[in-house]
Specification:
- It contains 21 helices and 38 strands.
- It has 934 residues and is of the alpha+beta class.
- The protein has a 20-stranded antiparallel sheet, sandwiched between helices.
- The protein is globular and about 85 Å long.
- The N terminus is likely disordered.
Length: 934
């Protein structure tokens, strides 16, 4: 292929660059095969401190976009991932969709290099490198020799391009586009490879839904007729039906992401599969195996709370028992911004589900409510059909009141004030199931609140269906309290426990989640949420390219949305209401119409086939749902002599009963029988775990146990590869063991399990592992002194409770392990914090969102706020043209956590322990957690 080379002189004021292109085997020679694919290639010799630097550039005109690339070779190869990506900009705003990428070459391993001449140790060094290559799986296979930035552009006139990176401007270069179809296709293919690879990297590192990245890949693929990358599959062909269903119900991000990719890429359902068919049948549910503790008279409800007699059996049930318990739980939630998941970790985006539900139901707490609540509320509970808080749940709050008139008057006064303060909100009375119902609502379902009264019970809900069922249960008595499963639950967890929170998920409720009415509508609303987000992103992309206010039809016509966009089986769609986007059937995103209120009349053949596979899997492999119950008790303590350091001990008891281990697979069948025998550990073991298991390799039921001393353990990344894992374990001060002596190690071939005696009862095995045997124990450790010091405390003791699994973590505050845990959590949070800042920068570079509008645009895209996972606030620095956080050091995140850094979980966690017991007919989990409170 023939090249057209150009030499362009620039003064240092116009252009500058760093580094000298080196003519070595990883430099020019390695780049030559790739350069042979560039037809329009320019060699820019730019003076900078008296040195000449080679800049490789090419630009080809095309429609709808031209494509260009600029490469800056490095003076010497460097490790992959160490170079900041290049960026480009131009004053005429002709540059679109840029991507910076490293140019990498393969590192030739020692086994493929020529054998050196003997002498001066060359051959021995070669042998040493070969050994390291064989024994290590973490050798670098590539290295970076240059940096490349590629981009699309419009027009054919010359362009003055500014190249920069995170450290500042590198130079300005003039590109003169040429017109040639073949090089254009080659450059476009290279740009596409870089672009999709960079998108995948951001997706992997990000801690937010990757909707922007997925949209851009899908949209550009369609407009430029480029193939979707292999990782952009819309649905897994091999995933288990039960697993995929659980992900959909749980709202797992990978499930919603798969639907988003399918919608964004416009994957058409074949016409034959779009025809309307009848609703497929639900799974063939069977009755659970009766338990020996089953109640005799299902009409006996004297040992249960009265409020349970007004709950429909197909609802979940979360009871506080008293207004004081509700206040405790609400205050705990408010300490973490209304999102209890923030107790464990900060995510890249803030969950708004709880606040959205409170606003939708218009149930707000104020100081007057705190004062009057205990005098007017006897009992209260949250009930519903699902907990899809982030999209729009089907639930309500049920009150058992002491003074119905006072409580109703207070609620009605608040509802009147809300309606009078907003013209978009209406308050009216309607009749449902023969009852007069107060209905506060808005067209987008942002407010949707029914209030119905029946005797001393007042129910506030967002679902008309739940109103009907509440009234019906009051008439026929067919309540949750009347079911044998709930009566069993109340005998296993009686009222005398005085739980601060009691939660019960009935079989009927769990089966309802897998019904065709629920799953098919859940799948449809996931698509509706994707549609709303796609319109928002398409508008941003169109505005970036010069079409500021297109309609949805125009977006489809121009290729920003797929041709079959929003063509749905239920004839619903997306409409614009002012600046808001509304689903015509479900309302606004985040407050969709409750699924229980959506009538499913018919489905497509594709939906029927999809659901039928799920129903068949449940019928054959999971034919009944086991009820789940849990209770939380709390006890206030104080830390040492400090009466201001309040510690709450939370005792959590959970059961699945009745329970059928057979349908939970092999994991439920590998535990030994429940036992009151437990291992006693050394007092300085800060983490300890044990299991009573059954195994063909171990023989009879055996206790396996492990413990870790207070220490600084190895980095988790060190446990990668056989050799690295072995080295990391040698740094871990702890031990593992078994009782009674399983004999598995003794049966190893060639006497490997016997080792060399070093002292009575202790041998040294291959690899430097020490083994102690005695008293029925077999204990292994890399540290003989540690093992010797721990042995006097090791014992099998009788305890009060029977269990198969036991675990304990001590108080980490002030321990060596605290620093290690903090550092690991900090590193993960730092990665997410960087990804959030990069996302905001991506909005500016890919969709040209002005920095001042980036946070607002992000909130519109995700329907929630982006947050820094290190606890800071994102801010834009004009001087460096990038986003940072207020907790960073300038443009960089500190490598080590600052002295005042405390991860959310370390704020409150002060130790805990857990046990699991599997009986023939029920599964029991008990946990005790000490939590520091503000």
């Amino acid at each position: 292929m023939k090249f057209s080379w150009k030499t362009i002189s620039m003064s240092p004021a116009v252009g500058r660059c760093r580094g000298q292109f080196a003519d070595r085997h990883v430099g020019t020679t390695a780049l030559a095969p790739r350069l042979a694919s560039l037809v329009a290639l320019s060699l820019l010799l730019v003076p900078s401190s008296g040195e000449a630097v080679e800049i490789l550039a090419a630009a080809q005109v095309g429609e709808p976009f031209g494509v260009a690339t600029i490469e800056i070779p490095l003076a010497a190869p460097v490790s992959v991932g160490t170079q900041p990506p290049l960026r480009v900009s131009d004053a005429q705003r002709r540059v679109f969709y840029p991507v910076g990428q490293e140019v990498r070459v393969k590192v030739i391993p020692p086994s493929e290099r020529p054998v050196p001449e003997p002498g001066r140790g060359r051959l021995l060094r070669r042998v040493g490198k070969l050994i390291r290559e064989i024994t290590s799986d973490d050798q670098e296979t590539e290295e970076t020799v240059a940096r490349r930035v590629s981009f699309l552009f419009q027009g054919s006139a010359p362009m003055l391009i500014t190249v920069s990176d995170a450290t500042g401007v590198i130079g300005e270069y003039e590109l003169r586009p040429e017109s040639n179809d073949t090089p254009h296709a080659q450059l476009l293919g290279q740009w596409w490879s870089d672009y999709t690879a960079a998108a995948k990297t951001r997706i992997d590192l990000g801690d937010y839904p990757p909707w922007v990245e997925n949209y851009l890949v899908a949209m550009l693929s369609g407009r430029l007729h480029l193939p979707l990358p292999s990782w952009f599959e819309t649905e897994s062909k091999t995933e288990d039906a039960l697993v995929s269903t659980l992900k959909l119900i749980a709202g797992a991000e990978e499930a919603t992401e798969a639907m988003f990719r399918r919608t964004a890429s416009g994957h058409q359902v074949p016409p034959a599969m779009s025809r309307q068919v009848s609703i497929p049948p639900a799974p063939r549910w069977t009755q659970p195996i009766p338990t020996g503790n089953a109640p005799g008279d299902v009409n006996d409800t004297t040992f249960m709370e009265p409020i349970a007699t007004r709950v429909p059996p197909e609802c979940f049930y979360i009871r506080y028992g008293s207004f004081e318990n509700y206040l405790w739980f609400r205050d705990l939630s408010e300490e973490y911004g209304g999102d209890l998941s923030r107790m464990a970790t900060l995510r890249g985006f803030r969950s708004q589900g709880t606040k959205a539900i409170e606003s939708q139901l218009h149930l707000h707490m104020n100081e007057l409510s705190r004062l009057l609540g205990p005098t007017v509320i006897e009992d209260q509970a949250i009930i519903g059909r699902d907990l899809f808080l982030n999209e729009g749940a089907t639930l309500g709050v049920l009150f058992h009141v002491k003074n119905a008139f006072l409580f109703r008057s207070s609620l009605q006064n608040d509802r009147n004030n809300r309606a009078n303060s907003d013209e978009a909100i209406q308050l009216e009375e309607t009749t449902i199931a023969g009852k007069t119902v107060s209905f506060l609502h808005s067209a987008d379902n942002r407010v949707r609140s029914y209030m119905v009264e029946d005797g001393n019970y007042i129910f506030v809900t967002n679902s008309e269906t739940l109103v009907k069922r509440f009234v019906q249960v009051g008439k026929d008595g067919q309540s949750l309290a009347a079911t044998s499963e709930f009566q069993l639950a109340r005998r296993l967890m009686p009222l005398e426990r005085q739980d601060s929170i009691f939660t019960y998920f009935s079989p009927q409720m769990l089966q309802g989640l897998v019904s065709p009415e629920y799953l098919i509508e859940l799948r449809r609303r996931t698509g509706a949420k994707s549609d709303i987000t796609l319109v928002q992103l398409a508008k941003l992309a169109a505005a970036a390219e010069g079409t500021p206010t297109p309609s949805i039809d125009q977006l489809i016509h121009l290729g920003y949305l797929p041709n079959n966009f929003s063509q749905r089986a239920d004839a619903s769609g997306i409409v614009e209401v002012g600046e808001d986007l509304i689903d015509t059937r479900r309302g606004g995103r985040g407050t969709f119409l409750p699924i229980a209120d959506v009538e499913l009349r018919n489905v497509t053949a594709e939906e029927s086939d999809w659901y039928s596979q799920i129903a068949a899997s449940y019928s054959s492999r999971f034919p009944h749902m086991d009820p789940i119950m849990a209770g939380v008790q709390r006890k206030t303590m104080f830390a040492g002599d400090d009466r201001n350091a309040k510690i709450e001990r939370l005792a959590i008891h959970a059961e699945i009963a009745p329970w059928s281990p057979a349908q939970y697979g092999k994991y439920a069948q590998q535990l030994g029988p429940p036992t009151r025998v437990a291992m006693q550990f050394a007092p300085d073991d800060i983490v300890a775990a044990q299991a009573h298991v059954v195994s063909e390799q171990l023989g009879p039921p055996t206790h396996l146990f492990a413990a870790i001393k207070d220490s600084n353990p190895p980095n988790p990344d060190d446990f990668d590869g056989l050799i690295k894992t072995f080295r990391a374990l040698k740094q871990l001060p702890g031990y593992i063991g078994a009782w009674p002596l399983p004999g598995m190690i003794d049966r190893l071939p060639l006497g490997l399990g016997r080792g060399t005696p070093v002292r009575p009862g202790m041998t040294r095995l291959l690899g430097g592992i020490y083994r102690y045997t005695g008293g029925g124990f077999s204990v292994l450790s890399f540290y003989p002194d540690l093992l010797t010091a721990s042995l006097p405390f090791l014992a099998s003791v009788e305890v009060e409770d029977a269990a198969q699994l036991r675990g304990r973590i001590g108080n980490l505050r002030g321990s060596q392990l605290e620093g290690w845990v903090t550092n690991q959590l900090y590193q993960r949070s730092a990665t997410s914090s960087r990804a959030g800042a990069d996302f905001l920068g991506m909005l500016s570079r890919q969709l040209r969102v002005p920095p001042a509008e980036a946070l607002t645009a992000t909130q519109a895209i995700f329907n929630t706020d982006l947050q820094c996972t290190l606890g800071g606030q994102y801010e834009f620095l004009p001087q460096s043209d990038q986003w940072t956080s207020t907790v960073w050091q300038g443009n960089a995140i500190p490598t080590n956590p600052p002295l005042d850094y405390v991860h959310p979980i370390m704020h409150w966690f002060r130790g805990g322990q857990v046990t699991l017991t599997q009986y023939d007919d029920r599964l029991v989990v008990d946990a005790v957690i000490d939590a520091a409170r503000q």
